């Protein structure tokens, strides 16, 4: 890989596919500091798996279902599968630096596939199972991907047909590779994943400071951006996450959310579990029925959930016959988990709550297992690393940011820089010019407050704050008040245009199933009686059956706004 003035060029030397300068690397002096501090250890994921296989051999690394079959692979078997798949992919012409769009649901094959690509030095582009044609085409085009690797069908959607269509549309895509789960769809001209297992090859280890994969941004506007993460930087966050979340060899991590997302992948996720020599269980779906059965049968000790799912699990735990007593820690993150919900989770699931505030771009914050309860209930944690730099700045003018720091404890926009936070999105020079400060801090777009212990409370998104006639309303705060009502399972607040106020608030509420849903006036009175400023009482309340969600299951306020504009609610 060549470096030009702090930028790296694509590793391919073929001028037809060489993407040119595509992402910003860490400046040399900072990189040297991260190495000297022991954060970056010059190890790749492929080498790590070999070491893990030596250390843990016959212990179970992965459990999951492919089609109707339960599979259980030891560390040795996972390592062997990754070696053989790497050889098969090499046989297809996949080389170091090539991009491969990966769209797998929670099947055990996820891990050998990802590690095979890591070993080759080819970059998985982590699409989510919920993505469809417009996203997959965008990922393939933007990255010049050489292949798409997916499953035949999942949740009654024909992914093989979609992969074939995208391969037909995007010239760089030479192969569609499909995991056949026996769903019975036509695989067309796709290569079967099972046919790729070949005799292992001796492959050169990729550059640990080079890109390992492309993650996707949560993306509040437009299509997701691509996030280049390196072996060195990501391994640091995985290693520390495993430690902070107390993973041990006898831990069992349940991937309930789609494993390709950064949260179940690395916070501490399946990679953290592997790192600790623990077992990863892939749940085919995130719903309480499916997951509780696995918690019982596999004696799951730890998992990670987005807040709407945590609310649903807490509700379901009260009436399940399943034995959930093995659960020790439930991480909740991805969106704000307000105090009301936070206080419900531990007692309902009889476990320790750990809040996590992370982003695929890098920075991850955790409440610590020995933090006082008050911090666990009211904050989203503190950074993983002593070298994560955090600045809380004046959010007032996003177009002409002064980036002046606010007073300690005051609300402001979060900027961050550190050993595992990217310095630029992949092939997005124009966007990078505003998404990062000139000195390399990432503008997270999150509104936060930082307390004296360094714990961060997320107040909302800079852009989602509702400006109600000059009074600022954080949707998350109003949602938390609504969630305190016993009849409310979930709440989402958005701003709606208003002739007089500029914006007013509209609260959507999902009632607890089976109960008589609370009415708008009842809920407005309820919020008012909790002693909040009148301007925070939602102007409109709508009761709906469910919320639209993002690919990882976060409530999509963007989709709610769209539905409201188009008159669907
Ligand atoms: C995780 O990653 P992304 O990339 O899907 O989304 C990042 C964004 C953050 O910038 C923030 O706006 C929001 O999601 N977020 C939270 C939060 N955790 C994430 N907002 C409030 N409270 C939280 N606890 O979502 C992600 C990555 C790694 C671990 C966990 C979540």
- Helical region count? 17
What characterizes the major β-sheet? 9 strands, mixed
Spans of at least 5 consecutive residues whose pLDDT stays below 50 are: 1-20
Oligomer: single chain
Name the beta content range: 25-35%
Output the strand order for the largest sheet.
Answer: 5-4-16-15-17-18-19-20-21
Helix content: 25-40%
What is the CATH first-level class name of the domain at 76-206? Alpha Beta
Which ions and ligands are bound to the chains? 5'-O-[(R)-(benzoyloxy)(hydroxy)phosphoryl]adenosine
What structural class should be given to the helix and strand makeup? alpha/beta
- Which CATH architecture of the domain at 76-206 would you pick? 3-Layer(aba) Sandwich
InterPro entries: AMP-bd_C (IPR025110), AMP-bd_C_sf (IPR045851), AMP-binding_CS (IPR020845), AMP-dep_synth/lig_dom (IPR000873), ATP-dep_AMP-bd_enzyme (IPR050237)
Region (Disordered): 1-36
GO molecular function: acid-thiol ligase activity
Keywords: Ligase
Fold topology:
Blueprint: E1 3-4, E2 7-9, E3 21-24, H1 28-36, H2 45-56, E4 60-66, E5 69-74, H3 75-91, E6 99-103, H4 110-120, E7 123-126, H5 133-143, E8 147-151, E9 153-154, E10 157-158, H6 159-169, E11 175-179, E12 191-192, E13 211-216, E14 226-230, H7 231-244, E15 252-255, H8 262-266, H9 269-275, E16 279-282, H10 288-298, E17 302-305, H11 307-317, E18 329-333, H12 339-349, E19 352-359, E20 362-366, H13 373-378, E21 382-383, E22 389-393, E23 412-417, H14 429-435, E24 442-450, E25 456-461, E26 466-468, E27 471-473, H15 475-483, E28 488-498, E29 502-511, H16 520-529, E30 540-543, H17 557-565
Parallel strand pairs: 4-16, 6-7, 6-8, 8-11, 11-12, 15-16, 15-17, 17-18, 18-19, 29-30
Antiparallel strand pairs: 1-2, 2-3, 4-5, 9-10, 13-14, 19-20, 20-21, 22-23, 23-24, 24-25, 26-27, 28-29
Helix pairs in contact: 2-3, 2-4, 3-4, 5-6, 7-9, 11-12
The structure holds 5'-O-[(R)-(benzoyloxy)(hydroxy)phosphoryl]adenosine.
